[in-house]
Each structure stands twice: as C-alpha cells, then as structure tokens.
Amino acid sequence: MSFTYFDHNATSPLDAGVLEAMLPFLRDQYGNASSRHDLGITARRAIDQARERVAALVNVRPSQVVFTSGGTESNNLFIKGAAEILKPSQIVISAIEHPCVAKPAAALARKGWAVRRLAVTGAGKVDLHDVDVALQTPTGIVSVMLANNETGVIQPVAEIAEHARAAKAWMHTDAVQALGKIEVDFEALNVHAMTLSAHKIYGPKGAGALIVDKRIELAPLIAGGGHEHGMRSGTENVPAIVGFGAAAELAASRLSELALRMEKLRARVEQGLTQMGAVLFGAQATRVPNTSYFAFRGIDGETLIIELDKLGFGVAAGAACSSANPEPSATLLAMGIEPEIARGAVRFSLGSSNTAQQVDEYLKAVKLVVSRLKNLTAMAV
Hints:
By secondary structure, the protein is an alpha/beta fold.
C-alpha cells in the first residue's frame, strides 16, 4: 500500500537537489571551515554561499545570519540571549506560541521577569488591543510567531513590532512555519530578530538560523571558539548548512507557484471536509496556503489519525512536538474552542509533491473513517 504524506508542517522531505548539493560535503569535502588548508577553505566558501542564499530569501545582509541547529535553538538563543543583556522586566509572548518560545520565556520568571501572554481572537489571530494593554507595562522582549504551526494563521507581526519598538522592547518572530510558504521579509516585518529552520523548506534537519539586527547584542548560549560571529560556537555542520542554503534558493525560485498550487488544493480539501460536516479552525483569517486544521464533533482526533494512517495517509493532531500529549490543543483553547471539539483536531498540511488526485483519495478515506466511527459511537449508545 502506498503512503501519502500530508504532514509537511511537522517536516518536509529532503529535496533531491538539496541532497545533491550536500553530498560532496558528506563524502569528499569533509574539511573544518576554520582550517586554513584547501579543504577548510572550500568548506568556508560553501558556508559563506549558504549564508548569502538564506539572507537573500529573507532580505537581510549575510552578516545578519547566525547558523544554529534549528528553530528551537534559535528561539532559545534570542530569548535567553536577550534576557542576559537586558534588565529584568516583562516578556510578552502570544498565547499560541510554540513550546520552544513559551518554555524559555517561562524560565525567565525564575530570573525576575514577568511573563505576559497575549490573547488571540476566535480566528486565531493575536488581539492587537491586548498588545497595547500589555505594553503599558515596561517590557524588554516581545516574541510572536509569524504563522501558527497548527492553524496556519498569519499573525500581524509588523503591527506588533511597531508597538514593541515604540515601547523600547526588542521584537522577535518565529518564522519557521511561514518560510517557503509566504514572502518573509525581515525589514518589512520591522523585527529585531527572526527564527528560521531548514527542514520545513525541504532542507535537512539539524540546520536553522537566527536573523539578528546588528544594532542589538545577544549573549551566546554556547561559548567556545567564537564561531558564527561569536554567537554560536562549535564546528559548523557544513553539509546541513549547505543544504539549508540550497533549500533557501529553491524556496525563493518557486514561492509564488507553489503557494498558488497549494492554496487550490487546500480549497479542494476544505470544500470536501465542510460537506462532511467538519469544523474548520482559523479559516476566517489569512493563513499560509498549505495548512488546514479541522475536527468532527464527537470523533477523537487521535483515533481519526490512526485510522487514516492504516489507510495510507499521514496527518497530525497539531504540533508534532506535542503529539504524545493527550490534552486538547493549547492553541485551540486560547481561541475559545470547546475542549470536546478541540480533542478532535486534525492538522492537514500540504507539500510540493501533493496532487489533486491524492487530495480526492484522502477525502474518500476521511469519509469512510468518519462514517465508520460515527456508526460505532451510535452502536455504543
């Protein structure tokens, strides 16, 4: 039985061209980029080229790109690094942040910081009025994701950044789920720092970046030989960084075409889901084009996911990092969704290789499983 993957928000498959770019650095070009001989110089040039490609994708200078091991490290680097420089005050995050923002923010409470969570609307968008209220209290750090990993809802980061700067706060956005799906422009967003990850854009796992405004200073998480402008010491993972650069170039080349194609496929799947009686989350707001989040009343989301997996379709219950958590999605609860409905949540996220035929086959499978589960529920009653 073939398997169709609809979980690209969790991770994306490594693109064949990206793998091809990485292979020389996994085999023959194994030099340390800090070495002065030919192999080392080749590695350094490859990293420099990758830095230029990532910078071009988000409209920054290459010197602003700090390579890390991924989105989690980048988010921790900004929050903890900023907290070491600034005097303790208030850190403001949204109520729908990924745990790799929420947990380091919560950890600052032990160092004298107050943590303030911004409310979101029923559509899953940060409430700008609550931003104004929150920033009436002296604030050092604001961190709001650009696109939510569960609903796909795009957040008003540029507007929040304007308020944050007026309040003399440092503004950060986790753009991991937005990159490669919509245009991401660091300058237009007006933020001080931004998090990226390679494996969400058909690059390798283990590579990410923090984009930093050179006018701010962060304390490094990892001290050592002073790699990455002193921001992230440790011998660079050259193959992964090269792969990130290749993935960034690929994302830039096909952004418009891919977004349009995925939006059409999502409309197709949501039309089918709505006809079956599904509840769609975040559909009233502007979203990244590949993501749909839904539930059927009275049907457990985990059960639906397991049954679809048996039929050869891969979807998720929400954030991949919290898939083992039996509690309803914190994002949906923050949106005011009833817990019983939230427990049924299923995330469907398209990728570059998905087709209309796959979507139609998926809808048939969902209809079959939902009908079967409803019949079992009726028999149990």
